[in-house]
Design brief:
By secondary structure, the chain is of the alpha/beta class. Helix content is 34%, strand content 28%. Bound molecules: adenosine-5'-triphosphate (ATP). This is ABC transporter ATP-binding protein.
Length: 235
C-alpha cells in the first residue's frame, strides 16, 4: 500500500515577468518519500521549488500540501503549513553564531527538533556552536541551513542543490544526514545536478527540461535510464 501524497502539484505554471518559466508541472511527493528533480542548469528546478513554496507569486495551477491549498496561503504563512525551504544560498544569519541561528527560527509545529537533537545529528555544528555564520565552511553552512528548518518542525524539506560547491567528503556527510532524516520518516523534495548523490538518497526522480517534466521513474528503474540520463544531464 502506498502512502498518500503529502504534496500534490498539478499543472503548475510560473512566470518571471513576461517570461514563462514553468509549463504545467505535475508532481507528487508521498509521505516519507525522498523525490529528486533532476535536470541541467536553467531548466526550471529552482523555479519549481520557489513556486511550490510560494516565493514566486506569478503562478497558476494547484498545489496541495498536507491539507492546505497553497495557492491561497500568503508567503509569510507558508512556513507555518510545515513546508520548509532551504534555498541554494542557504539563508543563514552570517553575523549570528550557530547557536543563535538555531534558536532564532520560530517553532511552528509540534515535532520540531530540539537543539540537543540537532547537535546529535550534526556533531560538527556542536563543535562550532559559538562560531559566527561567516566563519563556517560551505558544508557547515549548508548543514546549519538544514538544521534551522528542522528546528521549525517542518514536515517537508525542499532542498535546493544542497551539495553545490562542496567537497566530496562533505557531500557524503550531507547524504548521510538525509538518509538519517529519511529513516525518521521525513519527506524530502530535492533539486540536484549531482546525479550520483541523488541516486543514493532518492526513492523517485523527475527529469526536468525546458520548464517541463519530461520523465519520471523509480530508483529501481535507474539502470534502464542511464543512457538517457547521460545524454540529458551530461553525467
Ligand atoms: P539552476 O540550478 O542553475 O538554478 P534551474 O534548473 O534551477 O537551474 P531556474 O533557476 O529555475 O533553473 O531557471 C529557469 C529559467 O528561469 C531559466 O531560463 C532562468 O534564466 C530563468 N530565471 C531564473 N530566475 C530568474 C529571474 N529572477 N528572473 C528572470 N528569469 C529567471
Amino acid at each position: 500500500s502506498e502512502a498518500k501524497p503529502l504534496l500534490s502539484v498539478r499543472e503548475l505554471n510560473a512566470w518571471y515577468g513576461e517570461s514563462h518559466a514553468l509549463h504545467g508541472i505535475d508532481l507528487e511527493v508521498r509521505q516519507g518519500e525522498t523525490v529528486t528533480l533532476l535536470g541541467r542548469n536553467g531548466v526550471g528546478k529552482t523555479t519549481a521549488l520557489r513556486s511550490i513554496m510560494g516565493i514566486i507569486r506569478k503562478r497558476s495551477g494547484t498545489i496541495h500540501f498536507d491539507g492546505h491549498d497553497m495557492m491561497r496561503v500568503p508567503l509569510h504563512r507558508a512556513a507555518h503549513t510545515g513546508m520548509g525551504f532551504v534555498p541554494e544560498e542557504r539563508g543563514i544569519f552570517a553575523t549570528l553564531t550557530v547557536d543563535e541561528n538555531l534558536n532564532l527560527p520560530p517553532i511552528i509545529a509540534k515535532g520540531g527538533m530540539s537543539t540537543v537533537e540537532i547537535y546529535e545529528l550534526f556533531p560538527n555544528l556542536k563543535e562550532r556552536r559559538n562560531s559566527a555564520g561567516t566563519k563556517l565552511s560551505g558544508g557547515e553552512q549548508q548543514m546549519l541551513a538544514i538544521a534551522r528548518i528542522l528546528r521549525t518542525g517542518a514536515k517537508l524539506l525542499l532542498l535546493d542543490e544542497p551539495t553545490e560547491g562542496l567537497a566530496p567528503v562533505i557531500v557524503q556527510r550531507i547524504g548521510d544526514v538525509l538518509l538519517t532524516l529519511k529513516q525518521r520518516g521525513m519527506t524530502i523534495l530535492l533539486v540536484e545536478q549531482n546525479f550520483r548523490f541523488a541516486s543514493k538518497v532518492a526513492d523517485r526522480f523527475y527529469l526536468v527540461d525546458h520548464g517541463r517534466i519530461v520523465d519520471s521513474f523509480d530508483v529501481s528503474e535507474l539502470p534502464d535510464r542511464m543512457s538517457l540520463l547521460n545524454e540529458t544531464l551530461g553525467v
